[in-house]
Amino acid sequence: MLPVLKGIDLTVTPGQKVAILGRNGAGKSTLIRLIGGLEKADSGDIQSYMSISWPLGYSGGMQGSLTGLDNIYFLSRIYGVNPSMVKDYVSDFTELGTFLLEPVKTYSAGMRGRLAFALSMAFDFDCLLIDEGLSAGDSRFTQRCRDALNQKKEKAIVMVSHSQASIKEFCDQAYVLHQGQLHPFASMDAAYQFYGNCH
Amino acid sequence: MPNTQNPLHTRTNTMSLKDLWQCLCVQIRVIKALVLREMITRFGRHNIGFLWMFVEPMMFSIGITILWTYMGGHAKGTIPVAGFALTGYSAIVAWRNCVGRTSNSIKANKALLYHRMVTIFDIAISRGLLEFAAVTVSFLVLSILFTELGLMHLPSDPLQVVIGWILLGWFVIAAGLIAVYLDERSEIFERVWHVAMYLTLPFTGAFTMVSWLPEAAQTILLYSPMVNAVEMLREGYFGVGINAKYSISYLVTCNIVLTGAALLLLQRVKKIITAD
């Protein structure tokens, strides 16, 4: 078995907005899934003192054959939150309107991302894991996300994306994942410079 | 905004009794939500909706009861045909539905494993419980209906009927959990389970009472937990006069062993699949 990640040391504090850069297959999603508790590491441990969202992305987390609304109800129930409050917040935030009555499998990537992000805001996690989840949103929605996040400055973010625009939009710190190692950088530009030279 | 704190968010090494209690609450909450979610996709909100849940197994039992009543056969002695068919076929439907429909439950719900409190066990057990509940309601409704129509009498020992039915449910649900493992482990399961289910029919005990068979066949049949459960169920219904043969301790032992095996095997399913 080939190890994907080796000797990873990462601390995320409340309010920190961290981007993880890396080429396809570098292990970014694996790292996110480990933090999200979806997978267990072969060795080492992960300690969390914040509530952490599920990896918000284009797939996963929602049941495709259920409507958006039924997914809202289901997820509210498992997270132990009042479904009607969440429903109002999410339908207002996503502006999905009557699309919420359609099965989630008919949604575009952007619509799924919107729904997932709005749900995670409604559930009020301390730390959001974003796996490409915001990259497909239109500019109006991106602005809404920014505004919502600005209101809650203590929220932490760990984000994986190939879109430089959305990383610069949401993060203030970057790590590069290269050959199983996580490299910290003082500035975003330095991180991108290193990332550009990765082969 | 609502509070989402729960013990699964903070991972520490020590676990107190209070944590255990909280985990149990989370698990019950998740299973409840999953059962509701299953009901919506399976039966939807179209035409009679959730009623299909009971009507589907009911149609099966009614059809077989009519068939057996007019074709004769199977029932002997003091047992009314309708009662014999109802107890037997309810057991068969429970066996078939719990194993068949629980086995592919993970495939349909993989995306939900993204949420850390949703486990493979939760998904599988929700499906199993729902299927068994559906058959139970159909069994109950038909018992009342048949009794009202004068096709059979009220059970002679209701408590025994209840316990027998619960032990049967325990068995089929545990078997369903094992089927989840087999289904994830190998594609062959999906192809052979229909025929396997058909071949197990004689070992469900639905078609005959053990005491009607020759000695040698009796010994073999009584190794089947299902046969023990159905014999117990029928004795509860039709009284000790029917000469039922079963062992509660054997049935319970089988169930415990099966459940233990199922829990161990489900741990492995986690390694086989990768949530996507």
UniProtKB/TrEMBL annotation, chain A:
Gene3D superfamilies: P-loop containing nucleotide triphosphate hydrolases (3.40.50.300). InterPro entries: AAA+_ATPase (IPR003593), ABC_transporter-like_ATP-bd (IPR003439), ABC_transpr_TagH-like (IPR015860), Bact_Polysacc_Export_ATP-bd (IPR050683), P-loop_NTPase (IPR027417). The keyword Nucleotide-binding applies. Signal peptide: none annotated. Residues 1-197 form the ABC transporter domain. The keyword Protein transport does not apply. One of its GO terms (molecular function) is ATP binding. It holds the Pfam family ABC_tran. GO terms for cellular component: membrane. Keywords: ATP-binding, Nucleotide-binding, Transport. Belongs to the ABC transporter superfamily. This is Unannotated protein. It comes from freshwater metagenome.
TrEMBL record, chain B:
GO terms for molecular function: ABC-type transporter activity. It is found in: Cell membrane. Residues 31-238 form the ABC-2 type transporter transmembrane domain. The keyword Hydrolase does not apply. Keywords: Cell membrane, Membrane, Sugar transport, Transmembrane, Transmembrane helix, Transport. GO terms for cellular component: ATP-binding cassette (ABC) transporter complex. The chain crosses the membrane at residues 48-71, 77-99, 120-146, 158-180, 192-213, 247-266. Its main location: membrane. One of its GO terms (biological process) is lipopolysaccharide transport. It is a multi-pass membrane protein. This is Unannotated protein.
